[in-house]
Amino acid sequence: MRTRPQERSSEEGYYTVYPIGTVERKDGRTLIVLDEKYQAGLKGLETHSYVDVVYWFDKNDTPEQRAILQVHPRGDVSNPLTGVFATHSPVRPNLIAISRCNILSVSGNVIEIAEIDAFDGSPVLDLKGDFFRFYKPQTP
């Protein structure tokens, strides 16, 4: 998957992003299925309560969708026009999405989650475990 129509080097300001898995919806379940080569990276995730899933809004990947910079939040025209960077809109210059998902189980290369606002087949770019599980802010 490329972040621009032509592949260019990072020195030119363009980056190539490769999915590590996909979102799958089966039999009323929502799954993150990683390529098996990334399974070792899931070690310990079963002890976390949630995972932040970074994925690509691939169904909106057109020049027209990427050019939209203001939206009515949640598609509701009664909401004021707002810049996409102040929203979770699926249309934006780079179609990167992040959803915090409750983990139901981890088995092999599959994470079952409670829900995600991604489509079936959406490419998963990265996973971030429960940050506060390891980070303990110091209190004065």
What is the element layout, followed by pairings?
Blueprint: E1 21-26, E2 29-34, E3 50-56, H1 63-67, E4 70-71, E5 82-83, E6 96-107, E7 110-113, E8 123-129
Antiparallel strand pairs: 1-2, 1-8, 2-7, 3-6, 3-8, 4-5, 6-7
Q: Domains counted in the coordinates: how many? A: 2
Q: How would a crystallographer describe the biggest sheet?
A: 6 strands, antiparallel, barrel
Overall CATH class of the largest domain: Mainly Beta
Uncertain parts: none
The assembly state of the depicted protein chains is single chain
User: What CATH architecture label of the largest domain applies?
Assistant: Beta Barrel
Shape: globular
Structural class: mainly beta
C-alpha termini separation? 46 Å
Explain what this protein looks like in three dimensions:
- The protein is mainly beta and 140 residues long.
- The chain has 2 domains: 77 residues, YaeB-like (Elongation Factor Tu (Ef-tu), domain 3); 34 residues, no CATH class.
- 4% of the residues lie in helices and 33% in strands.
- It contains 1 helix and 8 strands.
- Strand 1 and strand 2 form a beta hairpin.
- The longest helix has 5 residues.
- The termini are far apart.
- The mean pLDDT is 87.
